[in-house]
Amino acid sequence: MPGLLSGLAPLSDAVTNDIRVEVLSLYSAENSQPLQDTWVFQYTVRITNQGSATVQLISRHWYITDALEHVEEVSGPGVVGEQPVLRPGQSFKYSSWCPLKTPMGMMYGTYRMSDDEGAEFDIQIAPFGLKAPYTIN
């Protein structure tokens, strides 16, 4: 697994049902405490509606894996306290953070969306790496 994690880029891009999800992660040295086995990563997500229907983000479901293969699932309503509505061509951007007990890991998941007729569907968040600089594999 560490070999796979070290090769994973700190960014991802996926399109599902005309909704594009782009993610960029960065190591947050000022919030990390490596001597206490805490590495903190910030990630910024941009969700863009490339379709012709208005959609709303209802909930999130993340899978977070560290270098010891410990998987944590995080789910809940919306993102950063919001359930944004995206009209055709609109984007929503937000930043959040993730602590790990190892200097590298990965995240991926799904967002549950609803279209303007009330139909719900999941969109993919492609895997992206979390990697502190100067990490030796």
Description:
This protein has one helix spanning 2-7, and strands spanning 11-16, 19-27, 39-49, 55-66, 71-77, 85-86, 91-100, 104-115, 120-131. It is mainly beta. It has one domain (2-130): ApaG domain (Immunoglobulin-like), CATH 2.60.40. The strands form 2 sheets. Strands 4, 5, 6, 8 and 9 form a 5-stranded antiparallel sheet that branches. A 4-stranded antiparallel sheet has the order 1-2-3-7, with no helix packed on it.
State the main characteristics.
9 strands; 1 helix; single chain; five-stranded antiparallel beta sheet; Immunoglobulin-like; mainly beta; four-stranded antiparallel beta sheet; elongated; 137 residues; 59% strand; 4% helix
